[in-house]
Amino acid sequence: EAGVAQSPRYKIIEKRQSVAFWCNPISGHATLYWYQQILGQGPKLLIQFQNNGVVDDSQLPKDRFSAERLKGVDSTLKIQPAKLEDSAVYLCASRTGGSLSGANVLTFGAGSRLTVL
Amino acid sequence: AQSVAQPEDQVKVAEGNPLTVKCTYSVSGNPYLFWYVQYPNRGLQFLLKYITGDNLVKGSYGFEAEFNKSQTSFHLKKPSALVSDSALYFCAVRDWNFGNEKLTFGTGTRLTIIP
């Protein structure tokens, strides 16, 4: 099966500019996650979708970050305006429904590396 | 909240020697624990998970992990290291809230296998 697709792979912007990242999960995967991975740290969850609904955005800086998954398939994460501390890799992951105790696990995309100057 | 800790930022092992990457956990209830590996410019790849059952879990690429409830640990192991095992390794724990599941990751351990 095709993996989780993300684009762009790399993006360099200046602070206060805006940027958008796109994710296409594995076909049929109902749950989609966006994680932020800052250099030297573990991935941190930003937002979780179940189909087209948000189920957890408690760690999303909502004054500058937004995300949507309008048709329950692909998703877009936007940052506006960007700050220096937003420099990170943005990872998208997806999985089927059901419990993580079952056969399904999170499958990650290659990530989008953002550098804010 | 559930959490995991990886006490070593970096581990270096000679090729052919056994390797161990350490992880300890703090959870309420039964832990669901995971190991992921990240190669340069790649996303995280699933290695193995512990849900219940045998304390020794076998996974991809010859890796295994030992669950120890009394020590609240879930160390990743391999009997004979390969240079290609050099990568960043993350331990993770399932975090559950109102039916929503996510993974909470440790800070990662960089494993370097020396030829």
Describe the structure.
The complex is a heterodimer of chains A (117) and B (115). Chain A is mostly beta strands. Chain A contains no helices and 11 strands. In chain A, strands 2, 4, 5, 6, 9, 10 and 11 form a 7-stranded mixed β-sheet that branches. A 4-stranded antiparallel β-sheet of chain A has the order 1-3-8-7, with no helix packed on it. In chain A, strand 4 and strand 5 (44-50) form a beta hairpin. The radius of gyration of chain A is 14 Å and the shape is globular. The model of chain A has no long low-confidence stretch (mean pLDDT 93). Chain B is an all-beta fold and 115 residues long. Chain B has no helices and 12 strands. Chain B has strands at residues 3-5, 10-14, 19-21, 24-26, 33-38, 44-50, 56-58, 64-68, 73-78, 87-97, 100-105, 109-114. In chain B, the strands form 3 sheets. In chain B, strands 2, 5, 6, 10, 11 and 12 form a 6-stranded mixed β-sheet that branches. In chain B, strands 3-9-8-7 form a 4-stranded antiparallel β-sheet, with no helix packed on it. In chain B, strands 1-4 form a two-stranded antiparallel sheet. Chain B is globular and about 45 Å long. At the A-B interface, strand 5 and strand 10 of A face strand 6, strand 10 and strand 11 of B.
Defining traits:
heterodimer; A: 117 residues; mainly beta; 7-stranded mixed β-sheet; 4-stranded antiparallel β-sheet; 11 strands; globular; B: 115 residues; 6-stranded mixed β-sheet; 0% helix
Beta-strand percent range of chain B: over 45%
Largest interface: A-B, 24 and 24 residues
Radius of gyration of chain B: 14 Å
Largest sheet of chain B: 6 strands, mixed
Rg of chain A (CA only): 14 Å
Instruction: Quote the average pLDDT of chain A.
Output: 93
Give me a quick take on this structure:
The complex is a heterodimer of chains A (117) and B (115). Chain A has 117 residues and is an all-beta fold.
